[in-house]
Amino acid sequence: MTDWNAMTDAEFRKEVRQFFEAEYPEELRHLPHRPKFAEIEHWHRKLHAKGWVAPAWPAEFGGMGLNAAKLLIFYEEQQRWGVNRGRDMGVQMVGPLIIKFGTQEQKDYWLPRILSCEDIWCQGYSEPGAGSDLANLRTRAEIDGDDFVINGQKIWTTMAHDATHIFMLVRTDPDAPKKQQGISFLLAPMDQPGVEVRTITTLSGETEFCEVFFDNARTSRENLVGELNKGWTMAKALLSFERIFIGSPSLAQNALGQLESFARGRGAFDDPVFRDRFAQAALDVEDHAALYARFADQLKRGETLGADVSMLKIWVTECFQRITELMIEAAGPDGGSIGPLQVGNVSVDVLASFYKARPTTIYGGSNEIQRNILSKAVLGLPG
Amino acid sequence: MTQTDILSSEQEDLRLLRESVRTLFERAGGSDRARQLRDAGGGFDPEMVRELAEAGVFGVAVPEDQGGLGMGLAAGGVIAEEVGRVIAPEPVVSTIGLSLGLLRRLCPDHPKMAQLIGGEISLAVAWQERGPDGAPADATCRYADGKLTGGKAWVVGAIGSHGFLVVAEQDDGPVLVLAEADAQGLVIDKRTQADGSSLGELSFSGTPAAELASSGAVLTALAEAVADATALAAAELVGLSERAFEITLDYIKTREQFDKPIGSFQVIQHRAVDLNVMCEVAQAGVREALAQMDSETDPKVRAPIASRAKARAVTAAKKITRDAIQLHGAVGYTDEFDIGLYLNRALVLSAWLGDDAYHRRIWFEAREAEGAAQ
Fold this sequence. Notes:
The complex is a heterodimer. Chain A is of the alpha+beta class.
């Protein structure tokens, strides 16, 4: 087995880049929507054969065992080449939780199925009354013999209509003194009578979000991960690496590249006002990348990131939105048109970028929640 | 604070430099000293200049074989940040960037080099001119037969300097000359700035001056020195912004209204976070720019990097110092509170060597030129 961490950063980057460039299907680069598994199945098989489905997992569980530095490089290359993340909820969220908190039986059973995508996972966290205030969740799971019986509703469940399983936070002790207590982490199959999935049509006309209704749905008691009523702490423990990943410069960098070719083709740079606004956006991206590099260096030195890493997400998502506004501005009378716009030999889907930028300030903890966290944890402000 | 200690990620030598300069300024009274000097007429303290020299401050970017520390602009930026934190009026950035920047490139053996590094003297650089409409214009100041005629404008550190490094025109092209502060026929018109410091408007009528260097090399060295000073001014603004933010943060934690610290109100908290993020982005961007300038030799590449730094630093300092006044409320509008000193200093540093809009334009034009060349 290859010890990727023993390679130099440059060697490793080259290896990853070569594989993506040679093997990733051209028509799937920079996909503007989330694909169903069937659309990317062919690519997933290649990745699986290569052993690269789970870069962050330890090698003993079938992952690449990358350290933080190598992992960042892997993701940077993935984003640079526009490689779709695939249906990675299993790899990113459930797998690490099972590895950390699961029993040996759970590891042996679930992990290989995650890698092969025999099981495709969706995340059941948010509920109609539990968004930013996630701990307010109400979906109940009650023990009944060897099963849990689940009743309630999840929402914003990404790609639930194309998932075989859901991992969820459920309330198992409604009488706990604090609402963060009494929450458990459960795995459940989707294909059963008590589970109903309805897609939600988004502003852009996509149907990647769903509502999932549970009406006496059942899952085996063996599918409780970790201790009963300890789900909240477990789910939170997962987020630390995600917080730098969600603030990476790539979304804004890619959008800026698109903006530049589009605006150039449309002659928008003839306007000095546009030039200045473009320069502002470009410098916003460049200086954000400098801050990102500072946090990435910390990770590479093996340090733990503080709560201050959230500022990356705030800056880059808002910057991404400003860039997409400039695209619309450069499109002029085409600014309201759906679908790709051809300019010279580049094709840019202005509104697809615009819509893609909207939820970035809402998901992963809305930017307002991030500001609340920073004000208390970093600035030490009261109340 | 769960925020990572920024100092820990800095190289050891830069960390030590930062600590020694910070200690020196704090012992001397921090920002109170800036207020005292302003109230005493707006000059700087020659004794402080000597102490800074002893700490190696002025020679920081001068190569070791020319009598400096050879630590580069990144180290200069560390010093500039510390100057900004206590809004020190001493001509630190203008000396490191402009006067020593010119001399070390054009006449490294000149005895004034050692005197500048040693803090015995300060020299102001006079390179810009004012046109009839009051805006910057091409150079017309003449140098012939050992004498200067014409004028120079926006001379930083003119008051209290021992002489002037003047960029002038002679028959066969540009020339750098040295005019003593008390030279005949030199009139210095003082323009007071928001922070109490002065810009000099110089006029020469047959003023004796000694030639230091001539030919096209003068303009090349000038452009390089201006780029260095621009990036260092950006670092000074970063330090200033950080301190202005800290003062404001302390204030909103202690000022109470409606029986609570105003910093407990979410609208205030979110504004504070935005200022903090702005500060961190500026610090990261400017430090990266200075490090890049140290590893680049091509002036065409270095200049737009300096512009990137200044554009960011001015954008951040503008936002932070203005919002700092707002968050202080009415007392922010008084002279009694220190936050106003930071706003006033930011106004001066932003206007010096080009503001954010100017440098975005320069940066963008360089980017276009590079794109066209490829």
